[in-house]
Amino acid sequence: MIANKSFHDFFVFAALPSLALLVFLVVNVFQKVRQTPKLRSVAILVLGDVGRSPRMMYHAESFAKLGFDTYLIGYKGSKPILSLTSLSNIRLSYLSESPPLVTRIPFVLAAPIKILYQIATILYTLVFDIPRPPEFIMVQNPPSIPTLALVWLVGGMMGSKVIIDWHNLGYSILALKLGQTHLLVNIAKRFEIIFGRSAYAHLFVTNAMRNHLEQEWGLIGHKAVLHDRPPSHFHKCLPLEVHELFVRLGHLISPALADFLPSASLPLTEIPPSSTSRASALSSPITPKLRKDRPALLVSSTSWTPDEDFGILLEALKIYESRAREVNLTNCENSQSKHSKERQVLPRIWMVITGKGPLKDRYMAEVELLQKDWQYVRCTSLWLEAEDYPLLLGSADLGISLHSSSSALDLPMKIVDMFGCGLPVCALDFACLPELVKAGINGQVFRNASELAEHLETLLTSFPLSPALDSLRTTLQRALQVPPNAEHHVRNHEHQEGADWEWGSWSENWNRVVKPLVLGDPERSG
User: Fold this and answer.
1) How buried is residue 275: exposed, middle or buried, by Cβ count under 10 Å (0-12/13-18/19+)?
2) pLDDT (tens digit per residue) in 210-265
3) Are 171 and 76 in contact (CB under 8 A)?
């Protein structure tokens, strides 16, 4: 009885006003039909935290630099990249969250009410926050409901051209929670097909996604693949940058790591005595260098959700701990014999995991119990500001990706960020991963914990002088230094080792793929 009364009160105070606002907004949309869309303007809609939607932020930056009045619409949360607040023709429009009571009722009831509230707030933003209908409306998919239907409606009525940026398939993510055969999953798939099939243009994060949707859904509109790329400020860090980062992050490092790290205050770098004395004498800047006794810094970024199995990484670290004890003990015994050639050793690993999500507390509690008995591995969870994240990647020795993809048609942005920082990657295998990760060229691929542990041992042997790891770094460095027309150069030299791995900055790719679409020359796109 109490639950029924609570739901009734919620419906009266939240759902009914949202429905009334929705009717009011639809009426106002009809009034705006009479206005001509403003040329060189775009509304970019992402139904998520704007600061955690890098691809959409990069889209906004690229549109703004092209001279477009740019409206980025989404939810407030993490700090967005600096350019979004520094470019005068970018405006951030934040959506309001649904009422807290939504989280207290069953999903089947909460979902339609949440969608109703989202429809009202999105329409309000599109109708009132943007003075004139934009020339383009770009929408991130997923989530598909209700955004695809809204931009289809508003774009059709106002004359705006709709661009769908396909990151993944919304129904496949819902299937992770409800199962492939669930009624709501089937409804979501039909919704996505109906409202996503037709648009002015479709952008895809992989060739596999483009091919699948073209063949299975018969998409209508211009179609182009825009592979993810990091922005230009992502780079491999110099020792001074590594030094300054960890001095700044020192307060976030757990005191429990004091006995594991060579120095709690300077875990990766040191100041040579000669540099200190020279700096005092000449008043010149101190030049730090990387410590030879530093641990190997491994980084993984995760949303701590079921589509990223952290258990694989945890099991691999267990295996590595066991192997490090065995190998290093044997090395110690052999080194005591004058007639024995010294064996190569395995270093300590400092595994840093960034991100937030529902499974974080569960896994980190398990880690804390395990590493009480570990000698060679420590695992730390950190949450970094947007400006520090690329610096951490640029300071690391190896990246780990556990992304498995609900549709097997998208690629993890975290690997793109790592490559942009010159960081080799060990990535969990799935269908279209070879579009990005080339085993033995820019990283390694694993299917289970034992394969990941094997790669860790191979890549980290003799660290910091690791031939296998250095080979991957060299490939990444060459790729990051190629000229702007490198992608075409690569296609013409596919017989060379690793030449089928394409790369280029976000700006280069965007100008080649998207710029012709929005400037009226779609035949040049792609």
Assistant:
1) middle
2) 999 999 999 999 999 999 998 878 899 999 999 999 999 888 888 888 889 998 78
3) no
Regarding predicted confidence, which is higher, 147 or 279? 147
CB atoms within 10 A of CB 153: 17
- Position of tokens 């190997």? 296
What is the distance between the alpha carbons of residues 427 and 243, in angstroms, rounded to a whole number?
28
Residues linked to residue 140 through DSSP beta bridges, in sequence order: 165
Q: Could you give phi then psi for residue 137, rounded to 5 degrees?
A: -120, 115
| Confidence class for position 336, pLDDT limits 50, 70, 90 | low
Classify strands 134-141 and 161-166 as parallel, antiparallel or unpaired. parallel
Residue type, 130: I
- Burial of residue 50 (number of CB atoms within 10 Å: 0-12, 13-18, 19+): buried
> What CA–CA distance (Å, rounded) separates 432 from 168?
12
Measured CA to CA, the distance from residue 81 to residue 60 in angstroms comes to 11
The residue with tokens 């952290």 is 310
Kindly report, residue by residue over 350-383, the tens digit of the pLDDT. 999 998 778 888 888 888 888 989 999 999 998 8
Between the two ends of the chain, the Cα-to-Cα distance in Å is 60
Between 358 and 473, the higher pLDDT residue:
473
CA angle 492, 496, 501 (to 5 degrees): 75
Contact yes or no for 401/412 (Cβ under 8 A): yes
pLDDT at 498 over 60: no
Question: Coil, strand, or helix at residue 297?
Answer: strand
Contact 146, 119 (CB under 8 A): yes
How much is the pTM?
0.79
| Residue linked to tokens 């949450």 | 383
**Ordered structural domains, the chain, with CATH:** 23-225 (3.40.50.2000), 239-333+341-480 (3.40.50.2000)
Contact by Cβ (8 Å): 204, 227: no
Residues 6+ apart with CB under 8 A from 353: 299, 300, 301, 302, 379, 380, 381, 382
The answer on pLDDT for 268 being more than 90 is yes
